[in-house]
Amino acid sequence: MKRLINLTPTKPTRWLLGILPFALIILVYIFASDARLAENASDKLLPSFGQMGETLHTYVLEPSKRTGEYLFWVDTYSSLKRLLLGITIAALIGFTFGLLTGAIPTFYAPIAPLLTVISLVPPMALLPILFIVFGLDELSKVALIVIGVAPFIARDMQRCTQEIPHEQIVKAQTLGASTWQILVRVLIPQLLPRLIHAVRLSLGAGWLFLIAAEAIASTDGLGYRIFLVRRYMSMDVILPYVAWITLLAFVLDWLLIKISHTCFSWHYQKPQ
User: Fold this and answer.
1) In the list 10, 110, 119, 189, which could disulfide-bond 151, CB 3.0-4.6 Å?
2) Which domains does the chain have, with CATH numbers?
């Protein structure tokens, strides 16, 4: 008899097992929604898929009567712009500091302790300060994402740099490579796929900081819309928006995986 730990499902079975939890969640929601709506047709807590579809149709395909904009797409564009800008800046800052502190002891001594302290500061506690310093415009929202994500990426890159075998650096120096050449030719190529992995891990935190900033001070964005309609208990808006945010996060993660495998295929090759 095969032990469970040794059983490997086939590809169709893996797909079926992967879909099964989502199907069960949808079925449970349908039954719960039908039960609540049967008792109270105006219940807002668990709207039916039909109600959510009608509301989503209004937000996606009909212009707002007040602004003439398609709110769903305006919110999506605003949130993605802030998120991608914040994550990009955080990645550049985190990669630079992580590389320098991991590779050069002179940089490590003064900067590494500072990175550790900054990474322990709750970014949400800094949000009022950011609003005071940068105002309520885009800069404060992007700054929150950068402050929340950059230290994590920097410390991860620092660790990855220190894990690269020291023998490679010694060999490069033996061949006459300068510090700059070692950074560019030896370390950076090996760290780029790991940077993409660190960015993937930080996307969840990036979304959290983005939605929090939009909820407090914004006039558009996915987070802004969710917190705007919560006062009316508009779950027919909130649930589709949450599902859309989840889908966007999944697509961004998938794109980063594809970029990493395409650009750095050598990183994923198994040793012979």
Assistant:
1) 119
2) 74-268 (1.10.3720.10)
